[in-house]
Design brief:
It is built from eight helices and ten strands. The chain has about 280 residues and is of the alpha+beta class.
Length: about 280
């Protein structure tokens, strides 16, 4: 009788472990299935505003500039169209003219525009594919449930290898130490709400060039039609090397013109996970 009871206890324990393991995998599976459904073919137009503050150098050589730029984005299925207003183009021309007279003059509008590459703009309107590829490079560590103001959510945690952040193989050869972490919060159906990326690294090029870098970025997502768009992204980057020191804080905010956000996606737009909730999770 005791042997039977012990066997039943063992089966219960095994069953609990299997259920726990399955539960841990559910969030990642749900996320992958949700991303697969967001093909990004819905016609869309939006205005992206990029603002940043940059500090470069130290002491008496410290230089600081602030810049911003509004960019109109449109994708109707025929390709991505990027439109700069006349005011932005005029400001860039004026900065280029001033640069001829003084090479140290700040160029905040040019920098705000140049910081947004075409591939990044495409990802802003269609984030699912890029997020899928990024997660494939990461190592899934597990998930935990949290209570959001609008419902239950799940936090998925990943470790990041160096190749997930730096695609250039030659550059990776100069990095000696690297630590990367990634969290993404999903709703009950697996659709992304928010993600947080943080990494730091150091390295050396040749004998006399050393470098240290760290980045933190928080991204908020929204489902619009069959697209996953990036509604808001805040970032902080710091870089220190033998030849330069810089620190940049910025924000990229998207205002959708079309399509309108559906009411059944309000959880994505309104759910906000605080650091206190994360520590309690």
């Amino acid at each position: 009788m005791l042997r039977i009871k012990n066997s039943l206890t063992l089966l219960v324990l095994i069953g609990t472990m299997l259920c726990s393991s399955t539960s841990l995998a559910d969030g990642l599976t749900d996320l992958q299935q949700a991303l697969e459904s967001l093909k990004g073919t819905t016609p869309i137009s939006a205005t992206l505003t990029n603002t940043f503050t940059e500090k470069r150098g130290e002491g008496k050589d410290l230089k600081e500039q602030q810049g911003s730029a509004d960019i109109l984005l449109n994708d109707n299925g025929q390709g991505l169209q990027i439109t700069y207003s006349k005011a932005i183009l005029d400001a860039m021309d004026e900065e280029a003219r001033q640069k001829l007279e003084d090479e140290d003059v700040p160029t905040p509008t040019q920098d705000a525009v140049n910081n947004l590459e075409a591939s990044e703009l495409k990802t802003t309107l269609s984030a699912a594919g890029n997020l899928q590829r990024f997660i494939q490079k990461a190592t899934f560590q597990g998930e935990k449930e949290q209570q959001c103001e609008n419902g239950q959510i799940r936090e998925l945690n990943f470790d990041l290898p160096l190749e997930a952040v730096i695609s250039n193989k030659k550059v990776r050869g100069y990095v000696n130490d690297f630590d990367g972490q990634y969290q993404i919060w999903i709703d009950k159906k697996g659709f992304p709400l928010k993600s947080r990326l943080s990494f730091s690294g150091s390295g050396r090029a040749f004998i006399f060039f050393s470098m240290q870098a760290q980045t933190h970025a928080t991204t908020y997502y929204q489902v619009a039609g069959n697209r996953l768009v990036i509604l808001d992204r805040e970032y902080h980057r710091a870089y220190d090397s033998s030849w330069d020191t810089s620190e940049t804080q910025g924000r990229e905010s998207l205002v959708l013109h079309q399509p309108q956000i559906s009411t059944d996606s309000t959880l994505v737009a309104q759910c906000n996970v605080t650091d206190q909730q994360r520590s309690q999770g």
